[in-house]
Design a protein that fits this description.
By secondary structure, this protein is an alpha/beta fold. It has 27 helices and 22 strands. The longest helix has 22 residues, at 32-53. It binds glutamine and zinc ion. Glutamine binds at residues 442-444, 501, 562, 610, 612, 652, 654, 737-738, 740.
Length: 766
């Protein structure tokens, strides 16, 4: 028999019950007991789902009210002092409220305290709370939630396995704090001590298997870290449980020998992203060890080709027998909960998909197919899976010959502006007539309650299209008037008509589909609903031209058109897996290129193509960066290169860690780039010490995420710093991101100060 299991299951609930309960608790609408009850109900339901599907064991420990990495931090007493209530760590009873304070930035008194940093978990859109590490930090067993959950599952009689972020990955995800630099690996021994205690406690509760998540094994590890893995797992070897070390999100690469040699009972690998690892590991696996093959895609929503997987894994099955386990590639946290709820998707489209609930069935059926104990239901599933593959391969909804023809006809010249930046810059200056230190904004203006209410009513059919359009036009007019009154040099229309920068375009492009309930946890109680990019991308008609044209008709100042770039359109969606991402990205680029050309033809002289997701698309392994950057940059250039020299192409990115990809950013060859820098005090500009950025740049002079009014002198000083590295005629003055989350009462004075700063700079450098 072949064991089937999952690494983790979404905890948010098919109806986002967890979001509702936690937010209600934070607001004081429900009490602690009600919150705990909501959590318990979700755990029980999700375990039952796993049992009903026929998994051989359920997974306990994947539940979290906020974040699973934070769970470990509180479990091992890694609670920064500013959040901890008196001696709760020492007493070993870190409260859930303390975890919430760490996430939300509150001292025990209720006063604001700097929240723990949050960042993306590897290459996912899930954000974890970064552990804060201090030299000589001590750890201790400081919580009992995990053990309570195990007892809860034991009471129900479920066969189970416990999951916990592994010690090395926890440490890897942390960040050193405090004055003196230190090596965080010096904390390892203490950490392992506590993990040892945890494992003993779990064994006392009758737990046989513990899965320690170590996805850091899929990244480039320094030798000191590779050694640390060996050291740590040798120490944990004494623990009275069986350990399953789980690596995912990529291949083991040069960590393969390390992983296969760890003295543990089993290894889980991501066979979706690294199918080659299966045979390589089996060749070297000691005869008592289990190999859990992550064959079902935990990162995407496509139905698995079960027959192909069965055939591919047949030799692994023959060689490993009962030591082969089958699972999704990673926790199902990264996919939506249940496809059955999507009543508005047609049957054919639905037949191509599998969400978390369906992936449980796929996992079970694949395991049974390999173990040779197929039930009638499994036979049906295998046949349906093959049928779905065939229909996807042939469907005219997916394959549009005209898109393929257009892609095939592309030449290098299509990704190349007519002239080099210097020539273009001159032509643009003639057309635009801008002053030195021109001012602009990033695109969006406040999305007021009225705007959102109007859109809601429009989408529900309660507001006629003509009324909705009239209201959005009034918003645009309002934004234009204010920008003129403030004295901004290059205007924007303010994006009132957009809900979300990807959804807005996806809804107008062929090849994208949207779900109603396809929520995926992004951080804490926040969820996102990524679109599904399922087919060849085409643009049936212009998407933004009428709005931009209307906005330009209201003013003599240049109006900047506003688009979301191809890499971001790709990155923030579930993307088809039947062709390389690079090809899909190029298709989006061509659709956007048509939009860019149409904007130009409509009299728009500056067009911004936002790429906030360019950096997060970087592969986990350095060796793969070059290939990614090459096609990502090419896609951007394809979208931007259809216009004349005099049309100014802008781009925007919201991050400042730029230094390691600065050359690729320059390769985008945008005429102007606006970027985030204000929070990092122009740290970004360090990148320009060694690299001469060739085109124009607007280093964001104030942080739009802060409600504080930016100070004129502060902004002048930041620009002076920038002017030390970049010549004056290539500098722009702008905020560091879009303004849609702010109110007009904050935006107006902030921009007034920004314009004032630009005027001071102009006078100084005249
Ligand atoms: N143009 C978008 C806006 O201003 C850019 C958003 C972003 O950078 N994420 O909102
Ligand atoms: Zn931004």
């Amino acid at each position: 028999m072949t064991i089937s299991h999952v690494l983790g299951y979404p905890r948010i609930g098919a109806d986002r019950e967890l979001k509702r309960a936690t937010e209600a608790y934070w607001k004081g609408d429900i009490d602690r007991d009600a919150l705990e009850q909501a959590g318990r109900e979700l755990r029980l339901r999700h375990w039952q789902d796993q049992r009903d599907a026929g998994l051989d064991m359920i997974t306990v420990g994947d539940f979290a009210f906020y974040d699973q990495v934070l769970n470990v931090s509180t479990l091992i007493g890694a609670v920064p002092k500013r959040f901890a209530a008196e001696d709760e760590v020492a007493r070993g009873e870190v409260d859930l409220d303390t975890a919430f304070r760490m996430a939300r930035g509150r001292a025990p008194s209720g006063e604001p305290a700097a929240a723990c940093e949050m960042t993306k978990y590897f290459d996912t859109n899930y954000h974890y709370l970064v552990p804060e590490l201090h030299s000589n930090q001590e750890f201790c067993l400081a919580g009992s939630r995990l053990f309570d959950e195990v007892e809860e599952a034991n009471t129900l009689g479920h066969p189970l396995k416990v999951v916990l972020t592994g010690p090395l990955t926890w440490l890897w995800l942390g960040k050193e704090r405090g004055e003196a630099a230190f090596d965080r690996l010096t904390l390892l021994d203490g950490l392992i001590g506590v993990y040892g205690e945890i494992l003993v406690r779990l064994a006392d509760l009758g737990v046989e298997w513990v899965q320690l998540d170590e996805p850091a094994l899929a990244q480039d590890l320094p030798a000191s870290w590779q050694n640390a893995y060996e050291r740590a797992y040798h120490s944990l070897q004494a623990a009275p449980v069986k350990l399953l070390v789980a690596s995912y999100f990529g291949g083991l690469g040069d960590n393969l020998s390390l992983a296969v040699g760890l003295p543990v009972a089993g290894l889980h690998i991501d066979a979706v992203r690294a199918p080659q690892d299966v045979d390589a590991l089996i060749d070297r696996l000691l005869p008592h060890k289990v190999l859990s093959v992550g064959a079902i895609d935990g990162r995407n929503i496509w139905r698995a080709d079960l027959v192909r997987l069965r055939d591919e894994l047949a030799s692994a099955q023959a060689r490993l027998g009962e030591r082969l386990w089958i699972a999704p590639s990673c926790s199902l946290l990264h996919v939506p909960v249940d496809l059955e709820r999507e009543s508005e998707l047609d049957a054919e489209f639905k037949s191509w998909l599998a969400f978390a609930r369906q992936k449980l069935d796929e996992t079970v059926t694949l395991a049974r197919a390999l173990g040779g104990r197929l039930g009638a239901e499994d036979e049906t599933r295998l046949a349906a899976a093959s049928q779905a593959q065939a229909s996807r391969q042939a469907s005219p909804r997916i394959h549009r010959p005209e898109v393929a023809t257009r892609l095939a006809a592309l030449t290098d010249a299509d990704a190349q502006r007519h002239s080099a930046y210097l020539t273009r810059g001159e032509a643009q200056r003639r057309v635009l007539g801008l002053p030195l230190f021109p001012t602009t904004t990033i695109g969006s203006f406040p999305q007021t309650a009225e705007i959102r209410a109007a859109r809601r009513r429009f989408k529900a059919g309660d507001l006629p299209a003509s009324d909705y359009e009239a209201q959005m036009k009034a918003e645009i007019e309002y934004a234009v008037k204010i920008q003129e009154a403030l004295g901004l040099d290059m205007l924007v229309h303010g994006e009132p008509e957009r809900n979300d920068m990807v959804e807005y375009f996806g809804e107008q492009l062929d090849g994208y589909a949207f779900t109603r309930f396809g929520w995926v946890q992004s951080y804490g109680s926040r969820c996102v609903k990524p679109p599904i990019l399922f087919g060849d991308v085409a643009r049936p008609e212009p998407m933004t031209v009428a709005w931009s044209q209307y906005a330009q008709s209201l003013t003599n100042a240049p109006m900047k058109g506003m688009l979301t770039g191809p890499v971001t359109m790709l990155q923030w969606a579930f993307v088809r897996d039947d062709q390389p991402r690079s090809v899909t990205c190029r298709q989006i680029a061509l659709a956007l290129r048509d939009e860019v050309c149409d904007l130009e033809a409509a009299g728009i002289h500056a067009i911004q193509i936002d790429e906030p997701a360019l950096r997060e698309g970087l592969p986990l392994r350095r060796a793969a960066w070059g290939e990614y950057l090459a096609w990502a940059v090419e896609a951007f250039r394809l979208s931007a290169s259809g216009v004349a020299d005099a049309t100014q192409i802008h781009t925007h990115m919201c991050y400042s860690e730029f230094n390691d990809i600065i050359e690729s950013i320059a390769d985008l060859d945008a005429d102007v780039i606006t970027i985030e820098t204000s929070r990092s005090d122009m740290e970004l500009l360090d990148a320009f010490r060694d690299f001469d950025y060739p085109n124009e740049i607007g280093p964001g002079v104030y942080d739009i995420h802060s409600p504080n009014l930016p100070d004129v002198d502060w902004m002048v000083a930041l620009m002076e710093k920038a002017a030390e590295r970049i010549s004056l005629e290539r500098l722009w003055v702008n905020p560091d991101c879009g303004l849609k989350t702010r109110g007009w009462s904050e935006v107006e004075p902030a921009l007034a100060n920004m314009v004032e700063a630009a005027r001071i700079l102009r006078r100084r450098h005249a």
